[in-house]
Amino acid sequence: MAGLATSFGSGAMSNSMDDIANDAEAVLIIGSNTTEQHPVFGTMLRRAVNKRGLKIIVADPRKIDITEFAVLHLRHKPGTDIALINGLMHIILEKGWEDTAFIEERCEDFDAFKETVMNYPPDKVAEITRVPVEQLYQAAEILATNKPMAVIWAMGITQHTVGMRNVMSLANLQMLLANMGKPGSGVNPLRGQNNVQGACDMGGLPNVYPAYQPVINEEAQKKFQDAWGATSSLKVGRTVTEMIPDAAEGKVKALYILGEDPVMSDPDTNHIRHCLEACEFIVLQEIFPSETAPYADVLLPGVSFAEKTGTFTNTERRVQMVHKAVEPLGEAQPDWWITAELAKRMVAAGGGRQIAAGPYAGWDYADSDAIMTEINALTPSYGGITHARLEKGERLQWPCPNVEHPGTPILHSKQFSRGRGKFMPIDHVDPAELPDADYPFFLNTGRVLYHYHGGEMTRRAQGLMEVYGQPLIEVNPEDAARLGLNGEKRVRVTSRRGSIEAEAWVTDRVPPGMVYANFHFPEASANELTIAALDPVAKIPEYKVCAVKVEAVK
Amino acid sequence: MAVNLTIDGKPVEVPEGTTILKAARMHGITVPTLCYHKDLTPTGNCRICVVEVTGQRFLQAACVTPVWEGMEVKTHSERAVGSRRKTLELMLANHPQDCLTCDASGSCELQDLAYEYEVEVPQWGYKGTRYVTDSDPNPFVRVDFNKCILCRRCVLACEEIQARNVWGIGYRGFEEVIVAGADTTMLDARCESCGQCVAYCPTGALTNKMSYGLGRAHQVTKVTTTCTYCGVGCQLDLEVKDNRIIGVSSNPDAPVNGMALCVKGRYGYDFVHHPDRLTRPQVRRYLLEGGSKSRQGSSWDWVETDWDTALDITARKLVATRDTDGPDSIGVLTSAKCLNEENYLMNKVARQVIGTNNIDHCARL
Ligand code: SF4
Ligand code: SF4
User: Fold this and answer.
1) Interface contact A113, partner B, CB < 8 A
2) Are residues B195 and B313 in the same domain?
3) Which of A155, A190, A225 is the last residue before a domain boundary?
4) Are B191 and B120 in contact (CB under 8 A)?
5) Total beta-carbon pairs less than 8 A apart between chain A and chain B
């Protein structure tokens, strides 16, 4: 969440789900299909609408389920989020709804930002986004006059070549309205996978150690050099979206992959296959023979969440216990055990790398609690989050620097992590690939309620398959008529990178000119079609927009 | 404003507007309930929580009656207890007598009350099955309205917790029954298969289809854990019998979600025991035979090995690559599905042992 880190100094969700559901007067949901991707939070919001009249504005090209509960649905053209937000802020400034005291006391760089926003008058914004001017005024009024207001988003905002700028735009909006640091407000990126927040917190990123201590910082390097007896260089590493293509160029020769399935989850599947084939040695630690397994040289059987004990961190920075319920299947082992055993053997093999003595240089862990003790020592925001406290029923959200600290449900309440909130002037840029004569449709991709990600787990859950057992491609009725789909159910969707065939679901959930596909099923995964164009800083691929053509299959 | 009253002779003080039931519970006095649930709007329709209030002609439903100054409440007067017994008798007269084989036995509130109040099925009792058992095709929810006591908790759970309004009351009088939508199937009535209605049903009318026949309350061990699917982080209880997960139940103390779960969290657990699971380490044959890598023929076959062999081969390969081509020739992908502790170790192995910052995961994807 590099965008938020630039604006505020911390990339995590600023508030908690229950304070948004209980205290927000209005909510802007943009690029999050909340009821299908974060279902229980979706129902919390629906309850808030029914019980206390929470006002929801949804900005999404698709008529997703939560729009039923919205007071207003802005159906902007894909890839025009920045223009939309700038347009709303233009109206807010025009009407004088901004919070000048907050802007002066807690933020900086307002003038350059204002200058940019002034270039987005409602007429121009309506033209770029296709949202009518009246709706822009309605939306601006609802968002500005109902306080506190929370902004919620997910991959619909970040999975663009301008993803990081989209996020900074939303940060601008919340600073403008002083919707930061109190219950029911804030900037709230919903994290997709159960422990994506934790994986980031624990240094599973090429640019930071645990707790976002930068690898380019010499002090941080020294801290880990001393603790571990050896560490990495000051140079930022490669992201997943670079690492795998690097294999095709011979720059990356070996991959150690834990529980990921690049063939299903990465953009442009054909190219990914080619890269994995080129890689000299792939170790895959997995619970299923995934779509990536055919490319692996070694398969190490890990275990599911039900067979191990430790912690996950949810989207609101809440660390919670996971408890072993059943013994590992067969000879499978908890992933921490496998990694530690592998590390021990690599250290024992010696070779060209020296590892000095250090308080945390070793790899002997009796259990995950012992690992947490090491995390406590080296990860400031997790300093006081121990298994013992969690087992006692304490509810802890990081930052929680020591064992007396009660945790932090809301960030930025007195000041921003970076000091002052930074307004950023952000301009609209078109997506990397737009529909044209040959590929006239927008393709939008994502998940559905009944499945998860590459579908490795949910496709093996019988009941889920009974309800949603095959990939469906959403097509607008007007387009269906134009394509002559009458009666014919199957469509072929083709992009410049690949082609898939699947059954059409004719529905006005998608606007004319757009189709929607998911990536849960290998026989017709949307990622055969998607483009590997990346946000230049965050390196997130543009899953949410690319151009395709659609044909009926006779 | 505080209100003073006595409950079973004990003087108590509670805020104005408190119901008799809440006032009693606040002071450790038990009033039995059936249709009442603390998460749902009280309806007072089952008549189990009736209590005697001095000066009132009729018994009062404790869950909906607010207290007043000077009120005298008797929770277990002869009249109140007699009335509860009668109510239970009527319920049992219209309820199948198959606790012996019922999935809900041991977790059924009707059964517990019948036991506590020593109520037996009246002579003139149950005449036969009125509804088809397992009457709805929903793959997760097993519906048997023969066991329904019309408490309406499912209706409220779907309406107030899930905000989906699938269930309602259909027909009149003795024919009264819970219906999905306009008496159609659950999925047709836009059910999201979250199982909230099952979690709140006090009897065996709504149960979990995937758990049917696999074990009952006294046979399972519940293990509280955190959902493996999305970032909301719902907590839930895995129900385990003979080293197998046979179901999931809500844990009312769950910090984020309370009793609520979604279809994946509640019913998406069967992948754990799926036959496709990897249970032994495997390596390509060429690695065992010492030849060079080839994707052709039998040298690319998988061979199952023990842990030592697989780990030694992997360690040797990674060390050799690191020493020949440099630490940055190795990439590490960690996992947003795995534990914090595991992600920490992946970060440590990349940076300390290999010496590279090439570590990432699917946060971007
Ligand atoms: S499963 Fe959920 S959505 Fe379906 S009827 Fe029950 S409470 Fe309603
Ligand atoms: S139960 Fe559903 S909403 Fe809750 S964490 Fe699991 S997947 Fe997410």
Assistant:
1) no
2) no
3) A190
4) no
5) 484
Distance from CA of B195 to the nearest CA of A (A): 12
User: Containing domain of residue B17, as a range?
Assistant: 2-76
Residues B177 and B266 in one domain: yes
Query: Which residues numbered 239-268 in A keep a CB inside 8 Å of some CB on B?
Result: 239-241, 243-244, 246-247, 251-260, 262, 265-267
Please tell me the distance from the alpha carbon of residue A476 to that of residue A346, in angstroms, as a whole number.
Answer: 55
One domain for residues B290 and B263 = no
CA distance A276 to chain B (A): 12
- Which residue minimizes the CA distance to atom 1 of ligand 2? B265
**Cβ-Cβ contacts under 8 Å, A329 against chain B:** 273, 277, 279
Secondary structure element (H or E) that encloses residue B57, with its range: none
Co-location of A218 and A310 in the same domain: yes
A58-100 pLDDT, tens per residue?
999 889 889 999 999 999 988 889 999 999 999 999 999 999 9
Q: Are A197 and A12 in contact (CB under 8 A)?
A: yes
- Does the pLDDT of residue B270 top 60, yes or no? yes
Last residue of a domain, one of B223, B241, B273: B273
pLDDT digits (tens, 9 = 90+) for A373-426: 999 999 999 999 999 999 999 999 999 999 999 999 888 877 777 778 889 888
Which of A34, A37, A40, A238 to probe the B interface (max B CBs under 10 A)? A40
Say yes or no for a CB contact (<8 Å) between B231 and A340: no
Residues A216 and A186 reside in one and the same domain: no
pLDDT digits (tens, 9 = 90+) for B282-339: 999 999 988 788 888 888 999 999 999 999 999 999 999 999 999 999 999 999 999 9
The reply to whether B6 and B70 lie within a common domain is: yes
* Cross-chain Cβ contact A195/B337 below 8 Å: yes
Residues 6 or more apart whose CB falls under 8 angstroms from that of A336 comprise: A308, A310, A365, A368, A371, B339, B341, B342, B345
Substitution candidate for ligand 2 out of B232, B249, B269 with most atoms within 8 A of CB: B232
The answer to whether residues A137 and A20 touch, using CB atoms and an 8 Å cutoff, is: no
**CATH, residue A519:** 2.40.40.20
The count of domains in chain B is: 3
Residue B233: list chain A partners with CB under 8 A.
Answer: 194, 312-316, 318, 320
Q: Answer yes or no: do B25 and B139 share one domain.
A: no
A461 in the same domain as A357: no
Q: Are B63 and B95 in contact (CB under 8 A)?
A: no
Q: Do B231 and A197 touch (CB under 8 A)?
A: yes
Shared domain check, A323 and A204: yes
Question: What CATH number did the domain enclosing B36 receive?
Answer: 3.10.20.740
Cβ separation B282–A201 shorter than 8 A: no
Inside any domain, residue A428: no
Within-domain flag for A407: no
How far is the first Cα of chain B from the last one, in angstroms, to the nearest whole number? 55
Long-range (24+ apart) CB contacts under 8 A made by B121-124 are B121/B89, B121/B92, B121/B93, B121/B95, B121/B97, B122/B89, B122/B92, B122/B93, B124/B93
Mean per-residue pLDDT over chain A, rounded: 87
Q: How far is the CA of B263 from the centre of ligand 1 (A)?
A: 10
What is the residue type of A239?
T
In this prediction the ipTM stands at 0.91
SS (H, E, C) B298-319: HHHCEEECCHHHHHHHHHHHHH
Residues A142 and A206 in one domain: no
Which structural domain range is residue A234 located in? 196-391
- Is A399 domain-assigned? no
Ligand closest to B262 (CA) is 2
Q: Do B209 and A252 touch (CB under 8 A)?
A: no
Domain of A350, CATH number, reads 3.40.50.740
Taking the model in full, what pTM does it have? Answer: 0.90
pLDDT exceeds cutoff 70 at A348: yes
